[in-house]
Design brief:
- The protein is of the alpha/beta class and about 400 residues long.
- It is about 25% helix and about 25% strand.
- The chain has helices at about 15-30, 35-40, 45-55, 65-75, 90-95, 105-120, 145-155, 180-200, 215-220, 355-360, 365-370; strands at about 10-15, 30-35, 60, 80, 100-105, 125-130, 140, 160-165, 205-210, 225-230, 255-260, 260-265, 270, 275-280, 285-290, 305-310, 310-315, 325, 340-345, 350, 375-380, 385-390.
- The strands form three sheets. Strands 1, 11, 12, 15, 16, 17, 18, 19, 20, 21 and 22 form an eleven-stranded mixed β-sheet that branches. It has an eight-stranded parallel β-barrel with strand order 2-3-4-5-6-8-9-10, surrounded by five helices.
- Strand 21 (about 375-380) and strand 22 form a beta hairpin.
- The longest helix is centred in the middle third of the chain and has 19 residues, at about 180-200.
- The protein is elongated, with a radius of gyration of 24 Å.
- The chain starts with 7 loop residues before the first strand and ends in a 17-residue tail after the last strand.
Amino acid sequence: MAGFLKRTWAEIDLDAILHNCREAKAAAAGNIMAVVKADAYGHGVRYVAPALEADGVQWFGVSNLEEALQLRSIGIAGHILILGFTPPECAAELAARDISQTVYESGYGRALFAAARDAGVRIKTHIKLDTGMNRLGFDASPQTADQSVSEILALFEGGGLLPEGLFTHFASSDLDGDPDGGFTREQSDRFHRVQAALEAHGLRFSVRHLCPSGGIYTRPGDCETLVRPGIMLYGFPPSDALQSDKISLRPALSVKSVVIMVKTVRAGDTVGYGRAYTAESDRVIATVPIGYADGYPRVVSNRACMLVRGKRARIAGRVCMDQLMLDVTDIPGVRAGDIVTAAGADGGEFLPVTEISALAGTIPYETLCMIGKRVPRVFFSGGKEIGQINYITESFPENCWTTAGK
């Protein structure tokens, strides 16, 4: 592999992402808004988004204006929706780059309208309804839905905001906190009641979307004109509770490192910070250059495993900032230079991100997003390497990255 130091890196299978996108589309029987915020959940949006667009995806969801501008800068021509906040003074930039903006309450909507009017532009707008998430959105609860309808109608009276989309976000469509689906059904009912009220006043939205990844599994009838797969694109259902014989996902990311030192420690010796591991007998310990600065969680010290030569090796001691140690006593012949798999497949063994996440007390979303920027991403399609992103060295002066690293 050329172009990065063989220390710790991530491999991304773009074919797996395209497969997962097609699975989501087939399950939803509708169009896709690919959620590629947070650098495509840590996978590298500069390769992921163009691959999705080339495969027919026409909508992309991002968190903020910078992410939207990044998509335009890499040539994404499709529709882009900012799901979060954009300062109203950026109205001209939104219009110039043909970026749609979420409006989630009347004060923000009025400020965006005023900025658009002052700039002489019109902003494509998606109205977000809060149907029970209580994060962002016009309140769609029965007590205040009529007021929200009035506020939404008022926003479009001056023409500075263009009514493009109406959407909400399910809080528990992955069944976490809603095992019988009743809360999600109520969210759906609230959405459709507000939608009907707006349409009764002549305000219609050509784009409507309710379902994130969880909703694609549990509420396919609510898919409307778009669905918003996020974690599904990268190979994971949003929770272990969701299984479907109609949806087959393929994890797209593997994390690799190398053994840089092997030594034998004697019975009674301790390993690492805090002497958290004590050898009960003579043990063979391999040092690996990956740590919590790379996004590998320290909390899994002494518990998680990695794959070496197709076999599991448990972490010995605490995960350090830049390194950790593995007990490879039961794996014959381990030597410096051997590939270590922190997540992914090696031979007949597979180490899923979900396992690491569970040990860390978190979810795959966070585990993926926490992979550090000093971990190069290496992209594959058709079984061949097609490109890389090295977030560190790409900022070097042109003559700084020596042939030693290429």
